[in-house]
Design brief:
The chain is mainly beta. About 0% of the residues lie in helices and about 45% in strands.
Length: about 170
């Protein structure tokens, strides 16, 4: 009679339930849930990150891949790689690289400028002072302008992207 003893086999596959997250998502935001394929019934798994394309971009919390403390910026890196190791209860491992796709989020403008800042005294209403332009990392954004405060009441007005002499 030959008695067979069961030996621990390595995990053979791993999957991530979702692989998309918004850029600039807060640390701890869930990306997806990991699961491991292993022929050994009842095996349990722990997960760790062995490599990632952006430093500290992701972290592991149990069987979840979460956003870490690194910078996830769609404009710089629209996809980020992360390699996860699954370790079974017998210490055997399986590594797999995943690609996480970042979704673009509209970000606030970062600057504004006026092409000219000088106008003749007593200039007539509607005379152009200068043209406004805005700095924004989001390509294709359009802008509207309004005056929120001015030192002399109604001294200036906005016409599209132009600052003009007011009434």
């Amino acid at each position: 009679t030959v008695t067979l003893t069961d030996v621990n086999d390595s995990p053979t596959a791993m999957s991530l339930s979702a692989s998309t997250v918004a850029e600039n998502a807060a640390a701890g935001t869930e990306v997806g849930t990991l699961s491991t394929t292993d022929v050994d019934d009842g095996d349990t798994f722990t997960y760790s990150i062995t490599a990632q394309g952006v430093s500290a971009a992701f972290q592991i919390n149990g069987d979840k891949v979460e956003v870490g403390t690194g910078v996830l910026d769609f404009e710089t890196t629209p996809t980020v790689s992360v390699t996860v190791r699954s370790t079974d209860s017998g210490g055997l491992t399986f590594d797999k690289a995943f690609t996480v796709t970042l979704t673009d989020v509209n970000e606030a403008p970062t600057g504004m400028s006026l092409s000219a800042t000088t106008v003749a005294e007593n200039a007539a209403q509607g005379i152009e002072v200068g043209t406004l332009s805005t700095t924004d990392v989001d390509d294709g954004d359009t802008f509207t302008y309004s005056i929120t405060a001015q030192g002399v009441s109604a001294a200036f007005q906005i016409n599209g992207d132009k600052v003009e002499v007011g009434t």
